[in-house]
Amino acid sequence: MTVKPGLPLPLKAVGKRVEGWDESGNCLQVEVSGAVRRAACPSCLHRSSQVPGCYQRQLADLPSFGQRVTLSIDVRRFKCVNPNCARRTFSEKLDSLAEPSQRRTQRLSESVRSLGYALGGAAAVRFASRLGVSTSGDTVLRELRRAGCAEPATSPVVVGIDDWMAKFLGDSGFGKALHVTVISDAVANLASLADKMPQNGTRILAGRISAASCGRSTD
Questions:
Q1: Per-residue exposure over 24-53, b if at least 16 CB sit within 10 Å of its own CB, e if not
Q2: What's the rounded Cα separation, in Å, for the pair 129 and 140?
């Protein structure tokens, strides 16, 4: 059976396999079932093979040749056989494929975060659309907040502070003010711009960074 490239491996990691697919619409719908016969209760760690039922979970995955992909996954619900456990039923885990309550696979979320880190909210949405990834600015920002920021390799020398206020109008017509403050490493940001400037522009930029570090003005 021909399957979406790169899909069997992450599915195999959670005990799943591809049963079929439907590409009649504008989205590739992949039917996924499970081969897991036993699972451990997350509360008492007792293993159970009793399956009183299952439910279907829809996950958006990375596009295939520019076409959006949705995984329809059968998730089994097991019954805990430990009489002393407070948990009666539990679902099989798909953590390496997708976090609980998420509608996207882990690798799709990582791609959205990478676009957000590189381009920001609106630009990331536009570029993602060209790649076949359907998302929104709010989703991109939410993924960035969830992931947080990596620790800087070095301490900043010059700190840039940008402060502004945005006003949003609600359904009632009344505005809601939101004060936003962004703190950045000014040297790192200017250094990235220096790579795209001619040689004389790089020297001017380096002088401004040096002057700013000493608290002087170059104007």
A1: eeebbbbebbbeeeebebeeeeeebeebee
A2: 13
Closest by alpha carbon to 139, among 118, 113, 163? 113
Q: Which two tokens stand for residue 64?
A: 């295939």
Whole-number pLDDT of residue 175: 64
Q: Which distant-in-sequence residues (6+ apart) come within 8 Å of 71 by Cβ?
A: 30, 32, 58, 59, 60, 61, 105
pTM equals 0.66
* Mean pLDDT along residues 171-188: 67
pLDDT at res. 6:
67
User: In 3D, which of 45, 60, 95 has the Cα closest to residue 75?
Assistant: 95
Which pair of tokens denotes residue 87? 């948990």
113 - beta bridge partners?
A: none
Q: What is the pLDDT of residue 10?
A: 83
